[in-house]
Target: Cobalamin biosynthesis protein
Amino acid sequence: MTYVVGLGCQRGCEVHTLLALFDTALAEAGIDPQCITALASIDRKHDEPGLLALARHLNLPLECFNAEQLAIYEHRLSHKSDVAFAHTGCYGIAESAALALVEQLGGAPAQLLITRKKTAQATFALACAG
Model:
């Protein structure tokens, strides 16, 4: 089974904020953090310090996709954010990125296991395949 966490965040979001969201969402769903294969986000966040620190802390790769690659998942999103679209050209970063990376890694259709969880500074989603 391939599990990917998709993340979106505001610029300057601290690693502890992302880690708390990661831990809380997985705990609520009863999923062991050790099952996670990778993290995913939008290419605009490839150098975001909080995301990079989270990937290092969890010892997971962080893969990023451009808005065009994420847009093809728009019809599968649980929530479409006009704010996200205005800033990135994509209606949902966390869910779209998780779906995109699962399908890239797993070579099989992905499904959202945890739909968008949001805090003031970040969003989280979990997709899987296999």
